[in-house]
Amino acid sequence: MDNDEPQIARSFYKIARFSGQIVGIWPQHKRSLLSNLLCGFAFVVILLGAVGENLYGFLNLSNLVTALEAFCPGSTKAVCVLKLAMFFLHHRQWHEIVQRLRGMLWHNRGQQAQQLLVGCSTVANRLSLLLLSSGSVTNTAFNSQPLIMGLYRWWSQLPGRIELPFNIILPAFATESQLFPFTYLILTCSGFCTVFTFSFVDGFFLCSCLYISGVFRVLQQDIRQVFADLHDGDSIDAFTPSINARIRLQLGQIVERHNAIIDLCTDLTAQFTVIVLMHFLSAAFVLCSTILDIMLNTSSLSGLTYICYTVAAMTQLFLYCYGGNHVSESSAAVADTLYEMEWYKCDATTRKIILMILRRSQRAKTIAVPFFTPSLPAFSSILSTTGSYITLLKTFL
């Protein structure tokens, strides 16, 4: 790392960057040929899986277990196609957001501020790694299951059977003996590209939210610092004109930074609106389907696969809600921090600046999309809705 780089540089979008580079959608001002080829390949194989698996599910609705086994990964891939397209088509806007956020994090070079920001980044990277790991384990389980069953049939001298990692509609020639290994490999790539896509997009959202939360918290530290050591003890009832001038100067800089953070949060929300909305709309269905699969599936191997799938799906949803919750709480905490200061000792002009920050901070900034606001209460609400769906469906089974 360059000596001029702050501590946060080492962990800045570390896991999300890795996943995004694998599928060629890490935000860049000017995309390279390699990134376009990787993104094009990922888009094609994920789209193939999304269309084929959902079509298989609709054609086999008479068998609920078989249909759900197709819909679960198929719906995830359909949402990932949207995520991939949104990041590819708007790569310049995403790059601008990354650069603006990078500038804010690099600006706060104080040791205490950097420790706070590195702590936020560490949590974000660990949760992103958890999502990548759970998704990879789930995809490995899907791809290993037919191989394990094939090995079992060979060992038991049972008749062989063509099995693919996912229930999917494909042209007849794709499952012929000559092309079967290639088809299996393509579907395996489809699964892994899906994992890297959602681990990048969802991890990018989480990291962005926690970085914004960290910058809000640094702002709170700076507000406390403005009022620290202004005078000796509490012997005075009002600040002198020179102290008020000093406070106004520092608060003016804080107002500019506060506005910049809020504007960045607004732009991030605008970019993520469609992605978050589609993810939340599909979340209850995906969780309901996976849990029903576990309950109805008679194969222990399939049951284990869908347990892994449930963990990955819940991790995805939790990351959105956890990130959104941190943004709203940290933005509202700015007002609490300011109110705790000795604002009552300031003159009228200084109080007006403080009141302006207070009024804007009291309206907590949220990553709100139509019908949903990612937060921990929303997470529990979706889990509750999923439980209600499962209870209702069990009455018809």
Tell me the layout of helices and strands.
Blueprint: H1 14-22, H2 33-59, H3 64-89, H4 91-107, H5 111-155, H6 180-227, H7 241-296, H8 300-340, H9 348-362, H10 376-394
Would you kindly provide a written description of the structure presented here, covering whatever features stand out?
The protein is mostly helical and 397 residues long. Helices cover 76% and strands 0% of the residues. The chain is elongated, with a radius of gyration of 25 Å. It starts with 13 loop residues before the first helix and ends with a helix. The mean pLDDT is 86.
Summarize the structure.
It contains 10 helices and no strands. The chain has 397 residues and is mostly helical.
What does the main sheet amount to? none
- How far apart, in Å, are the first and last alpha carbons? 59 Å
**Alpha-carbon Rg, integer:** 25 Å
In DSSP terms (H or I, runs of 4 or more residues), the helix count works out at 10
Class by helix and strand content?
mainly alpha
What brief labels describe this structure?
397 residues, mainly alpha, 10 helices
